[in-house]
Amino acid sequence: MTKYVGQRVKRTEDPRLIKGLAHYVDDIGLPGTLHVAFVRSMYAHAKINGIDTTEAFKAPGVVAVYSGKDIATKVGPVPCAAALPDLKVPDYRVLATNKALFVGHPIAAIVATDKYAARDAVDLIFVDYEELPAVVDVEAAANGGTIIHESFGDNVAYKLTSGEGDIDAAMKAADKIVSQKMVHQRLAPIAMEPRGVLARYFPGEEELTVWSSTQIPHLLRTQLALMIGIPENKLRVITPEVGGGFGSKLNVYAEEALLGWISIQLGKPVKWIESRRENVQATIHGRAQVGTVEVGVKNDGAITGLRYNVVADLGAYHQLLTPAIPTLTGLMLSGAYKIPAIQMNVTGVFTNKMSTDAYRGAGRPEATYVVERVMDVIARELNLDPIEVRRKNFPKADEFPFHTATGLDYDSGDYDGALNKALDLSGYQSLREEQKKARDNGKLIGIGVSSYVEICALGPSQAMPAGGWESATVRIEPTGKVTVLTGASPHGQGQETSFAQIAADELGVDLNDVTVIHGDTGIVQYGIGTFGSRATAVGGTAVLIAIQKLKEKASKIAAHMMQCEASSLSFEDGCYTKKEAAAASVTGKSEPVVPVGEGPAGALNDVPTPTNGRHKLTIQEIALAAHVAKEIPPDTEPGLSATYFFEPKNFTFPFGTHVCVVEIDKETGETKIVKYVAVDDCGKVINPLLVDGQVHGGIVQAIGQALYEEVVYDEQGQLVTGELMDYALPKASQMPWFETDRTETPSPVNPLGVKGVGEAGTIGATPAVVNAVVDALSAYGVTHIDMPIRPEKIWKLIR
Amino acid sequence: MIPAEFNYARVSTLDEALTLLAQNEDAKILAGGHSLIPAMKFRLIQPPLLVDIGRIKDLSYIREEGGQIRVGAMTTHYQIEASDLLKEICPLLPECAGSIGDMQVRNKGTIGGSLAHSDPAGDWPAAILALNAELVAVSKNGERTIKAEDFFVDLLTTALEPGEILREIRINKPNGRTGHAYMKMHHPASGFAVVGIAANLSFNGNNKCKAANIGVTGVAAKAYRATGVESALTGVNLDDASIGAAAAHATDGADANGDLFASADYRRHLAEVYTKRAIAAAMKSVPSA
Ligand SMILES: Cc1cc2nc3c(=O)[nH]c(=O)nc-3n(C[C@H](O)[C@H](O)[C@H](O)COP(=O)(O)OP(=O)(O)OC[C@H]3O[C@@H](n4cnc5c(N)ncnc54)[C@H](O)[C@@H]3O)c2cc1C
């Protein structure tokens, strides 16, 4: 049955990407398209006393100029879907009206006949700014000072306490309280393709089509319909090729609504392609938490309770999920451990910066970092091996489903298994010996371990702001080709391949006969989208169940055509066979099989009929019969397609252990990763090649956070790292070889047994790297270093 | 990112280029475009005219002539990196070239453009200083030769006059027992030099240093010769102690830059460490007698 599932099938997406034949938003050209450029705030915090657009209007090619006041009441605010008690939600207009609240805040939009004229006119708009003190330091902002949204009275957007168990009692029961302050620096997702929007309004049909580089075409359609005020069934959102998102395109942006609205005003297509500078300024950022973790421990390393007090830097406004991201941190604070009582106290704070939101991992990397970092701090304090502290607190494989004091039920796991495999693979014991020898020779080697658990397959609708299910429609066309329509919206993950693998196996057809279509609300049934490592676990399951539904119908038609009961048919290799016929065929009686695609012209007439005594029919023949509809059972709908909306009952919880070995240059403080081993368990694997790719990419971004990346705003709120010349994205040449392996613990949550792997690397790897660096520097009494670990930080600690 | 409007002229002779430059005070020469175009896209500069010298014949070459190595200004980083001749007679040049940016940058960027641009973190200035190169500039008034140490004037400023084109780089062919090395800490984002040290040493017998030329980039507003290091090395038997003592002078008199990645203090420290390493590596590269 599994000819494809489990195999390293090469991505069917790749040839078009490699050959440069794929179509991104900017590759779509419509006649008469106008181009939009934005005037963006050069200040972090300023009153806008006036905007002079007269010169811009006169410039050649300029068709229209819009400022905040023009459209304040005409386009609805940028939405926030997160619902938290007493959450303060600022009115986030698509263009700034009275005040600019972050560098890059859009203030005016210029529409011109080409993108050059639009850009030139940006320099002709004069904004009368009155600069205000910028709110930059998040801890200070939590406690007073300049207020960003005056009507709120302070900069605190919300305070929330979460967790279960008696935390005070748990701390009292401890032999020792270990505590550590940690900074999770602000990161920029930097998808390879920046955002881009093309909007086209047909005034006659009153239809608006919006092409956008997004991860959530349907949710975007709903939100844009509300913002722009167009009926949702007159709005079509298409996501052509999307060059990565990492969460940054799991959002609804001002520009998306504006372009749609402008197209309606002008009756012409309008396009905007984000520049990299705009991308760093005005596409969401991630992480940005400052917190202190306190852990109660017994002398043997057993944890009695964990408390995390954290301030989250939300930026100036709420984007779609901004305030909800830190709550995901709260959910994952139990890590891979049995912790009887957990409490998180989070304060979400406004600052004069771009909003933070979901960036690869979205709140979970922060939790894993807190837990995995503090495990090492505990080991140090108690003079135990970091591995032993972890083992001591793991739930055993037979303790699943396992309830955490953060309110989750971990589906399945064998944390010891993954840890042991990673230790074996890395040769942990001999690494420790080598480390000792190296130290004796004056070399600084460090070994870091991280045993993570993450939460995937988001998620049950109960736990999600806008639905946690996913949809699929599977059709077999009259010619036997299979079309899969998924509500997920892959943008680099490879589901065109992996969903085709699932479908091809389940239908017994050739992989090349399956096409997976996604990202077009005009074609695909409503869906949720791709984020939170959900597409395969939720969307793939929808595909599987839709196929099972389709096959129920196909078997009825097959039974009718072969004049038998459906129960007397078997299905294998794409064929329905009468069971007694299968036995007979052993004796050598052959069956006429019509090869798909090789039939003569007009093959539509060659539908097998009940009278010609066949004992075996291919699913393609049945598809044809179902469409021609002459020989189907009387109570049966013509056609062969099925749709399924899958609602998962729980999240899934992948896990694993990463081991990182670093060598530090004593003179310069430079860190070199000399060995990296990752053992991940993401449940059943559909395509190991795709899993490896996700793990590799995730580790790279995790190393980026550990060693290189940081979005830096200076005291005036100016973005210091506004370009890739300053923002240190990790590069291939800086990466070590990754040794990856897996354990496979199926998830009971879905019939595929899959969990999810899109974010595992980013979640698991960061603490492994930092733990390794701290381990290397332990001889200097170093117990913690904040990220990114630039060489100068190390140099200052050890010189 | 879109530059302001500009005119573009593709010339086929140096003369044509010089004429256009003489007529348009604010015109800019376009070589590989890998410093110029980014600056235009950020609208840091808005030249009205670009004079593309990429099609002028015989501006891109590497040859030996009159005991000198001559490199045409339009020679790309990659051509230098891949030159068998240079690997043989002046390995510092290919070594330095190989440390610049990535493959795409090295395929487009030119040594002449890099020197004329004089980025404070550019790699070529260090090597050119260490090799005591001469730079040949042409203008309507004829040709003149500028010594490397006089060429780098200030931040992004060279001794080239308006209307002048850098045509050629000349380097005396190293002879006797010499050793070279270029050691660089790459900025993790830009790939440019946080510090870059080019060492060009010549030796009598054994480890006795006859002459030392040390070029330093990345540290200050412009690249410079570390004369303090050079004199501390000259005439001295090189060992760990003498190298360390000499390297301590790497930033003498330099006003070190500080930025997000490296403070001025740290940069000075790095310059010292990398100087030490460059000297050691240069010693190692001396062919055994
Ligand atoms: C991503 C990236 C990474 C890079 N990394 C590095 C690095 O690691 N190290 C490094 O050193 N550099 C690096 N660079 C810069 C690169 O080496 C440039 O190519 C070089 O600095 C400029 O050379 P060019 O031929 O591109 O000159 P251009 O950009 O065309 O010109 C630069 C300036 O010099 C002037 N000019 C050019 N040629 C002449 C001439 N013959 N006579 C007079 N004036 C002239 C131009 O008018 C212009 O003002 C990088 C660039 C990029 C884009």
Written account of the structure:
The complex is a heterodimer of chains A (799) and B (289). With 799 residues, chain A is α+β, with helices and mostly antiparallel strands. Chain A has three domains: 14-132 and 192-244 and 249-282, Alpha-Beta Complex (Aldehyde Oxidoreductase, domain 3); 286-459 and 649-798, Aldehyde Oxidoreductase, domain 4, CATH 3.30.365.10; 469-646, 2-Layer Sandwich (Aldehyde Oxidoreductase, domain 4), CATH 3.30.365. Helix content of chain A is 28%, strand content 23%. In chain A, helix 10 (325-331) crosses helix 11. The longest helix of chain A is centred in the last third of the chain and has 27 residues, at 535-561. Mean pLDDT of chain A is 95; it is low at 594-602. Chain B contains twelve helices and 14 strands. In chain B, the strands form four sheets. A five-stranded antiparallel β-sheet of chain B has the order 4-5-10-6-7. In chain B, a hairpin with a 2-residue loop joins strand 4 and strand 5. Chain B is globular, with a radius of gyration of 19 Å. The A-B interface holds A 115-116, 119-120, 123, 275-277, 667-668, 670, 707-708, 712, 720-721, 724-729, 731, 733-734, 790-792, 795-796, 799 and B 1-2, 4-5, 42-43, 102, 185, 187-190, 260-263, 266, 269-270, 273. The complex binds flavin-adenine dinucleotide. Flavin-adenine dinucleotide is lined by residues 28-36, 38, 73, 100-101, 105, 109-110, 112-114, 116-117, 119, 122-124, 160, 165-166, 191-192 of chain B.
Write the layout of secondary structure elements.
The complex is a heterodimer of chains A (799) and B (289).
Chain A: H1 14-18, E1 34-40, E2 46-52, H2 54-58, E3 62-67, H3 68-71, E4 99-100, E5 106-112, H4 115-122, E6 126-131, H5 138-142, E7 156-162, H6 167-172, E8 176-187, E9 196-202, E10 207-212, H7 217-228, E11 235-238, H8 254-266, E12 270-273, H9 276-282, E13 286-297, E14 303-315, H10 325-331, E15 341-350, H11 364-382, H12 386-393, E16 402-403, E17 409-410, H13 415-426, H14 428-440, E18 444-453, E19 470-476, E20 482-486, H15 495-507, E21 514-518, H16 535-561, E22 569-572, E23 575-578, H17 579-585, E24 616-618, H18 619-628, E25 641-646, E26 655-664, E27 671-681, H19 688-708, E28 738-742, H20 760-776, H21 791-798
Parallel strand pairs in A: 1-12, 10-11, 14-15, 20-21, 27-28
Antiparallel strand pairs in A: 1-5, 2-4, 2-6, 3-5, 7-15, 8-13, 9-10, 9-12, 13-14, 16-17, 18-26, 19-20, 19-25, 22-23, 23-24, 26-27
Helix pairs in contact in A: 10-11, 11-12, 11-20, 15-16, 19-20
Chain B: E1 7-10, H1 14-23, E2 28-30, H2 36-41, E3 49-52, E4 62-65, E5 68-72, H3 77-81, H4 84-89, H5 92-98, H6 103-108, H7 111-117, H8 124-130, E6 134-139, E7 142-147, H9 148-151, E8 152-154, E9 157-158, E10 165-172, E11 177-186, E12 193-203, E13 209-217, E14 224-225, H10 227-233, H11 240-247, H12 264-284
Parallel strand pairs in B: 1-3, 2-3
Antiparallel strand pairs in B: 4-5, 5-10, 6-7, 6-10, 8-9, 11-12, 12-13, 13-14
Residues 28-36, 38, 73, 100-101, 105, 109-110, 112-114, 116-117, 119, 122-124, 160, 165-166, 191-192 of chain B line the site of flavin-adenine dinucleotide.
